[in-house]
Every structure is written in C-alpha cells, then in structure tokens.
Amino acid sequence: MKTTIAKVGNYVEQEVTIGAWLANKRSSGKIAFLQLRDGTGFIQGVVVKAEVGEEAFQAAKNLTQESSLYVTGTVRADDRAPSGYELTVTKVEVIHEATDYPITPKEHGTEFLMDHRHLWLRSKRQHAVMKVRNEIIRATYEFFNQNDFAKVDPPILTGSAPEGTTELFATKYFDEDAYLSQSGQLYMEAAAMALGRVFSFGPTFRAEKSKTRRHLIEFWMIEPEMAFVEFDESLEIQEQYVSYLAKSVLENCQLELKTLGRDTEKLEKVQAPFPRISYDDAITFLHEKGFDDIKWGDDFGAPHETAIAEHYDKPVFITHYPTSLKPFYMQPDANREDVVLCADLIAPEGYGEIIGGSERIHSYELLEQRINEHNLSLDTYQWYLDLRKYGSVPHSGFGLGLERTVAWLSGVEHVRESIPFPRLLNRLYP
C-alpha cells in the first residue's frame, strides 16, 4: 500500500511504501536508523541487518543525505517517536543518490542558509514553520467563509497608492506610471459596496529600506472590508479572527509547535476580548515606563510597542491615533477632530503590529477635503470618491500581515523564516 508519512497511523502493523528523502541517518552495528521525510512529515525507518540481509543493509547504511527513495516497511506504533509511529524497513529502492548536500547537520550561518533557502526549506524547523503558515491560511478562509465574507482579488498593478507613493515600487504600464500594490484596501472598499463583506489575500510590496526582524519587502496581507460596520464592531471581528487563528494552530499544529519549541501556554491565552488602550493613554504609559523621548503626535517604534505589549498576556489594541499619523481615508472621531477611529493590534512577545485597521471616511465632502490636504490628485481618486457619491454607508476594514502572524504564532524570531522565499533589503536570491 502506497501512502504518506502523515497517514501511516491508518496502517499500523501493515506494510506500506513511502516515497521519501533521507534527512539524516545513523547506525549502530547491525541496525541503521533512517530519518525520512516526504513533505507531509518525518518518520524514523529502522533497518535491521538480520531481517533484510547484508546487501540491503549495506545499501541503507550507504545512503547519502537528501537522496530520494522508495521505502517499504511495516508501520509500528511507538510512543517515543514524535509522530507516534516508526517504520520497520524491509526494502529500500534508491531513486536518486544525492552527493555533497550543502546543508549538513552542523550549525550554519544565516547568510549561508539564506543563500540556500531553496534547500533550507527541507529542514525540520522550516518545514514546521511552513505548516503553521499553511494552517493560518486554511483557517483564514474557513473563518471568513463561515462569517459570510466573499473572497475578492484586487489588482497588484495600480495607478495610485492608498498611503502615498514614497515607499512604492514604480514601473511603467505601457506609457503610464504604475506601482506594485502596497495594499488592496481601496479596491476592497469598492467590492464591499457590491458584496457587503469581502476579504482579499495576496502579495503586497513596500519599498521601505528597513532591516528589522519585522520587515519584508514583499509580504502577504489578508484585507477584509465590511459595509455597515463601524469601528467597535470591526475591532470585535478582528479579535475573533485572531483568536480563531491561534485556536486552529494550537489544535492542528501540535507536532510542529513542539518541533519549534513554542510555549503553547502563551498561545492558549489568545482569546477574545483583547485589551484596548488609547493612543493618549499609551503615551502616558510610556512616560511612566521611562520613555521620555516620545511625545504626543509621534509614531510608536518597536521598543514602544514592545513595552506596551509586555504589559498584557494577549494581543492589545492601540486605538485613536492622531490624524496626522494616519492615511487620508480614516474616519475622524466625532468628538475629537485630532484623532481618527483606527487601531493597531500589537502581538505579545515583541512581535509588533500584526493588524492595522480603521473605520473609513464615508462623507464625500470630507474625503475630497482629505485628498486635497494630502496633495493627491482628485482625478486619480475620482473612482474612490464615487463610492461616497452613490449610496455611501459607514464601513470599516483592516489588514493582517501574514508573515508577522506566522512568526508570532510559531515563535520564530525573524519574519524571513515565515515566508518560503523572503525578499529583503539586500536579497533577491534565490
């Protein structure tokens, strides 16, 4: 019976064949232990010389790292094995013998591993991170489908920018200027006026020359937009969504979290509702913590966000930022013109902002005023203004950065490990 490592539990005490690669091996006298992987998981294959014969045993002992093979053997339950199963090997058929595999079981430097990212992905740790990423994506679709959101795909090539063009990659669109999208939000607002509740999931690009462990040049965003949803209701949907992601990862990635050494007790605390602190109170809090350099009207940096996050054991919303700090489309507070109805969701443990969101301006006159104040072209944004001209309604939305969320939930230190092929300030290879 041909199967995969993930499904061997269905064939205990039965003989199966698995297509696999040799991740590692060791031998002691008359027994060889093969660490096998097939993409779905890892399993140990035990080759006993007395059971397979001299020729087959020597073939198993001589296997090289990352050689591909078909392995046939009997599935055994084994409580000591991470997956709970082991394979008693009866036959090994080599498909391709790998030689001089560059990533050996010793320690390697980050730059070396990044240069070999196409191979580093095969390692147990990177495999675990990618499985967590996949679970977050699966749970994202599940959550929004269950809550009556329609998936909509905004364009990647755009003629304008929702947050200004200073950090965009410019290109030519025949004889026009175009940009790689930094957000699908404006288009998602149009979709929400047609479909009510929508979400997008796709790549976004920021030409931001940042080298921090939180930044990528190309990253993936989940961006919901919701008609007839005001600020407070949007926050409730955000915390329900993030709680759903944490719960799904805890339930479906236990082995991966164990491989990564993740403290799951911290993730178990990620349950709605989340604490909320206003920007005003956050400034006061930071002053009390000795951050004398920050003043009202300044944006928060990583140390500020971390200090606030450390005060709580679950994600925290920072709300009502100064109007001057935020993009032109955010709805002002009805009681205070100097702040907007927005919130950043800060993850615990120093992972920073994972969501930015707001209620959007729904007044044509106010949006037109904001576009002028930001020195943007009214002609370029006329289609966006049209949304306020023909049946405008209160509406809200947010964007969740996938890679920061993967890094946080899996517990890896740097976002470069949370995407298959990271694009960093000085890295476009492989």
From TrEMBL:
Localisation per UniProt entry: Cytoplasm
Catalytic activity as recorded in UniProt: tRNA(Asn) + L-asparagine + ATP = L-asparaginyl-tRNA(Asn) + AMP + diphosphate + H(+)
Keywords: Aminoacyl-tRNA synthetase, ATP-binding, Cytoplasm, Ligase, Nucleotide-binding, Protein biosynthesis
GO biological process, one term: asparaginyl-tRNA aminoacylation
GO annotations of cellular component type: cytoplasm
InterPro entries named among the record's database cross-references: Aa-tRNA-synt_II, aa-tRNA-synth_II, aa-tRNA-synth_II/BPL/LPL, Asn-tRNA-ligase, Asp/Asn-tRNA-synth_IIb, NA-bd_OB-fold, NA-bd_OB_tRNA
Aminoacyl-transfer RNA synthetases class-II family profile domain residues: 130-430
Pfam families: tRNA-synt_2, tRNA_anti-codon
Superkingdom, taxonomy of origin: Bacteria
GO molecular function, one term: nucleic acid binding
E.C. number(s) listed in UniProt: 6.1.1.22
Ligase as UniProt keyword: yes
Main location: cytoplasm
Assigned protein family: Belongs to the class-II aminoacyl-tRNA synthetase family.
Subunit structure: Homodimer.
The protein's name: Asparagine--tRNA ligase
Organism name: Alkalihalophilus pseudofirmus
